[in-house]
Amino acid sequence: MQKLLLLGDEAIAQGAIDAGLSGIYAYPGTPSTEITEYVMHSKEAKSGKVVASWGANEKTAMEAALGMSYAGKRAMVCMKHVGLNVAADAFVNSAITGANGGLIVVAADDPSMHSSQNEQDSRFYGKFALIPILEPGNQQEAYDMVHYGFDLSEKNGIPVMLRITTRLAHSRSGVALKESRTQNEIRLPENLRQFILLPANARRQYKHLLTNQAAFISASETSPFNKLTDHKDKSIGIIACGLAYNYLVENFAGHEVPHPVLRIGQYPLPEKMVRDLYDSCDSLLVLEDGYPIAEELIRGFMNNGKPVKGRLDGTVPRDGELNPNIVARALGLADTRGRDIPAIVSSRPPSLCKGCPHIYSYNALNEALASLSKGRVFSDIGCYTLGALEPFDAINSCVDMGASITMAKGAADAGLVPAVAVIGDSTFTHSGMTGLLDAVISKSPITVMILDNATTAMTGGQNSAAVGKIEDICLAIGVEKEHIRILNPLQKHHEENLRIMMEEIAYPGVSVVIPRRECIQTAARRLREEKKKQETSKAQA
Amino acid sequence: MKKDIILAGVGGQGILSIAATIGTAALSTGLFLKQAEVHGMSQRGGDVQSNLRISDREIASDLIPQGKADMIISVEPMESLRYLPMLSPEGWLVTNTKPYINIRNYPEMDKLMAEIEAQPRHIALDADEIARQMGSPKSANMVILGAASPFLDIEYASLQDAIRSLFRKKGEDVIQVNLDALEAGRGFTTDKLNNRA
């Protein structure tokens, strides 16, 4: 059978389409973005009328997916790990309501923080919500686990988490496809009170979830994705979760691993399998990408059993992504690292594109604030976070989606006046609007710069929910009309932009400045597509 | 057969077109492939790399073990050196010499070239200049791929077919320009190897 060469993300998307998906919801976030984009571009999904849409944020996406599951159809929601923080309220409660149609929550973690603020491990969220977690070790498993996960979800009436990491999300390999199956018909829950989490119902539902834990563990014991392989050298037994298994195998290229190995792809951890491995070996080594969640569980608080090695005792570094060399060192094998990087090689951080509108916004802002002490610009998450780097050195914070406005408010409350917030259009509608309302209600002396490039630029230019709505939103929230100012961030308007910024920064209430110009990446793409269309219509004429 | 390749460059230089060509050629000959890419923030003018692994046996890790790469193929000279810890002692360094300068502290060219020349097995060529002389400045990446092709253990005809298939929609002229660029790069390396021998 012909295999398709797919990214891990794409394998999940194709797996969902083939497993009878009816709706996929997401907010863009590296490394999860390509899952939803793939479904959006899929002809099969289009002909099957699969709904594929960007939500305003991860919480709205999670809730829409839960609604589709309520109606009996299969739904998927995708987000990066920190997006799950935003969706957490809906996510944790979805474990209490349970699922009706199959529901898979894809959480894409980013160990080593390639494109993120932290490297939190979503498996903790899955465990916290008491639901099964699937963790693929390769692209084929990513594909297969979607089909399996929907079945697991529907059989147990529970949302299932699919946890991946950047390395799998953005690595390609051949994937063999299954036959596709049809979507579910609409079928509401038998008990129409199942999703009403009033205390009396919620207690009942929660007990049901607790009762189901034994079934989840037993599903892990018999899962095709958990496999215990016995081998001669029992001085150490190895537990390898997800991708860690590949790095282990890589170190014995062409030969079998000489130790007993328990490969984990489904959680909760299969207790009996772990016990069997523990009993048969002198010590354990736990290899997992992310936090030491399996290691902590096995080691326990008293830590008075056989030695358990991993991230907690320093056998494996406490932070960062695993790789074959880290695993080699953990096994006491020779490290094959090559020559050092020559000293003349400079670091090359990412930078704003040539002609990017943010460049001119930051140039004007820096000048507008030049007469004041430094340290009063609170920023947010997007391309404009690169304003932290040279030559701009223009911002002082980047914490979570929307935090610019509320941190500026808090700092102004503390007496840091004026304080400035810098936030992008898509981040503003994701999580900035509620903070702006707080500031308006408190009449905070802050200036909010909403950098409007009409797209979600950092993740590759997805549609922004804010397009065409920003002034109306600000007005409706209560920002005064004369303190909502629009600029065109171009060098030729610099003097005018500077004057407007200085006026609004001087205003002792909430003001909003909107530098507005299309992202040059999406503009270039749009022009290319328009040109192509013109050429095709010319050719047809 | 196993080839582990680090592709290096700066975000926006299009190293993935090289990866796609090698990948298409490898798959057409029935080889296994894994290719780890960089998406997201680094694509904005930062350093980017891709781990491309080809083998006639199933491949375990998406990442190449450090010190085991058979080749570094770089479209930018300074970036070629960033991945030396990945290169095997017997590995080849194939790099463009045309610098991409978007940072203030870019090293002096003669020092940079001295580091590249100090690598025991290296091919260094100004692919941009070769492509420009051929009248197709956009095909510098195919010149680099051509220069790396003698070390790939993939039939040259398979690479040519891959270019034909990847550029099919763009028309015969574009296909030919890229085939010529591939040939020019290959010629550079075979000349160098012949002179050495």
From TrEMBL, chain A:
CDD domains (alphabetical): TPP_IOR_alpha, TPP_PYR_PFOR_IOR-alpha_like
Pyruvate flavodoxin/ferredoxin oxidoreductase pyrimidine binding domain boundaries: 15-188
Organism: bioreactor metagenome
Gene3D superfamilies hit by this protein: 3.40.50.970
InterPro entries (UniProt xref): HACL1-like, IorA, Pyrv_Fd/Flavodoxin_OxRdtase_N, THDP-binding, TPP_enzyme_TPP-bd
Protein name (Swiss-Prot/TrEMBL): Indolepyruvate oxidoreductase subunit IorA
Alphabetically ordered keywords of this record: Metal-binding, Oxidoreductase
Domain Thiamine pyrophosphate enzyme TPP-binding, residue spans: 380-467
GO terms assigned for molecular function: indolepyruvate ferredoxin oxidoreductase activity; metal ion binding; thiamine pyrophosphate binding
PANTHER family to which the protein is assigned, alphabetical: 2-HYDROXYACYL-COA LYASE, INDOLEPYRUVATE FERREDOXIN OXIDOREDUCTASE ALPHA SUBUNIT
From TrEMBL, chain B:
Domain Pyruvate/ketoisovalerate oxidoreductase catalytic span(s) in chain numbering: 11-186
Signal peptide: none
Pfam family, one: POR
SUPFAM superfamilies referenced in this protein's UniProt entry, alphabetically: Pyruvate-ferredoxin oxidoreductase, PFOR, domain III (SSF53323)
UniProtKB keywords: Membrane, Oxidoreductase, Transmembrane, Transmembrane helix
PANTHER family: INDOLEPYRUVATE OXIDOREDUCTASE SUBUNIT IORB
Protein name: Pyruvate/ketoisovalerate oxidoreductase catalytic domain-containing protein
Origin species: bioreactor metagenome
